[in-house]
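Batch manifest line 319
LIGAND: glutamic acid
JOB: complex structure
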Amino acid sequence: MLSLQSFLDDLYDRYRDLNEGRLASYIPELAKADKGCFGISVVTTDGRCFEAGEVHQPFTIQSISKVFAYGLALEDHGRDELFEKVGVEPTGDPFNSLIRLDEDSKRPFNPMINAGAIATTSLIDGTDPTDKLNRLLAMFEGYLGHNVVIDMSTFMSERSTGHRNRAMAHLMLNFDMIGHDINSALDLYFQQCSVMVDCHDLATMAATLANQGVQPVTKVQAISGDYVRDLLSVMYTCGMYNRAGEWAYRVGIPAKSGVSGGIIAVVPGKAGIATFSPLIDANGNSIRGLRVFEELSQAYGLHLFDLSMGRCVFTKALE
Ligand code: GLU
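JOB STATUS: finished
ARTIFACT:
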């Protein structure tokens, strides 16, 4: 069998010319991405990297931020209180759907769809909007191991065109699902989506989750180990838009994607894996990324329920 590095190089060569899909354009700034950009990164729980392609090309994190903001809200409020405000049920609806808010539960279905993510972000503690933003950025820095920058153009682009998200926040306010300061909550949500990362960063963030919340290089505890299972659970059931079921079936590891073209996935105890390629399908998932993950899962027995290979093939490949 090829070494993991050679396998990644081969995947990069085979999929770099796959030009199916489109750039996200509903946030105008995202339509400026380079369609050809493509990277694959594996970071182990002890900080080693196996990478191919443009792993240092910066882009905005978008929906992948929802996982980490959920972690911060869990730390601020605890599991029971947060569960009362934001559920954990997959919807089967698009991530930006307005329906299913008018329900008796008084809470959005899960923190990976926009409604649930806006509600989650609105719960982040802080004395004022700046304090909340600083806490959010410090949280990201814990995972990344370096300073975080927000892309102002994308933030402004989303802030001025995000009418659907604004409508959702108003509807949730109407149903008493979130507090009154929805403009600050929306700004914070748009800011978290505009955090700049690269493919290597995403794999490092995923590796931190694979490592019970401890950043593999800096050894900083980025999130309390107690809550990692919460994040991985909602990633597994709700992380891949309307393809979450098929992903769980075919790839079988907790993951989250974003409309800018990133995908992160966690192999618990072993590694974080990320891909970046901005051409997405109708659900919002990166097409090159989907192919890469399906092949990686198949080749290395990553599926959590695939006991035939155990995880030993992957463990050996990481040696
Ligand atoms: N900021 C984007 C939005 O709210 C995130 C979407 C995504 O990546 O799924 O529409």
